[in-house]
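ok so I'm stuck.
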Amino acid sequence: MKRRVCVIIPTYNNSGTIARVVESALERCPDVYVVSDGADSATLSAIDSFGGRIRKIAYSPNRGKGFALKTAFAKALEDGFDYAVTMDSDGQHFAEDIPAILEAIALHDGSLIVGSRSLTAENMPGRHTFMNRFSNFWFTVMTLRRLPDTQTGYRAYPLSGVPAPCTSRYEAELEMLVRSAWKGIDIIPLPVRVYYAPQGERISFYRSFRDTVRISAMYTALFFAALFYGWPATLYHKFAGK
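replied:
not stuck anymore, here's the structure
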């Protein structure tokens, strides 16, 4: 069965890159949701320039990436889509990888497709490499599965299967990944390219201390949840079938 697929692009204040990212996505998929997560006027102006070519979701104030994804997932599911490909709005992801993601969806129907970046990509910040390895380790501990990249935002979610996040910011993507594994959803890694702008040009809204604390707290909560639910559920799906 052919699945209806859309692209979801959450954005905050990315006026310098959002138009290019959206245009590139539209060239590969006609159904694109852009979520203005409390974006500034310049970013909103860039989004509005696409008119009816995109599906716009806007609200204020900023609520975080997890909230943006949860809101867009609910809307896309209501609109009859089966899958949502999520992309960052900072130009990090290449829309040229969308056809490969669509092929992976066709081959692994019902699975969660996770983009896998090279940890040696040019200009990748050192903290990204460390956090990814840290995250990969704890993902394996909590789910008894291995993934090469648990921090990427370039993914394809099965909308009727993936659990809605309880958290609202960056840690929501980790939460959905772990809870999907516990639910018995297959998680398929797919190599994707990534672009990191040079240090002087890079714009990041990741708050090093606060967001790292939030992610660490999420890992702690998930670890205790794994003891009483995650590991038993994982073993059930492994030995008794999904």
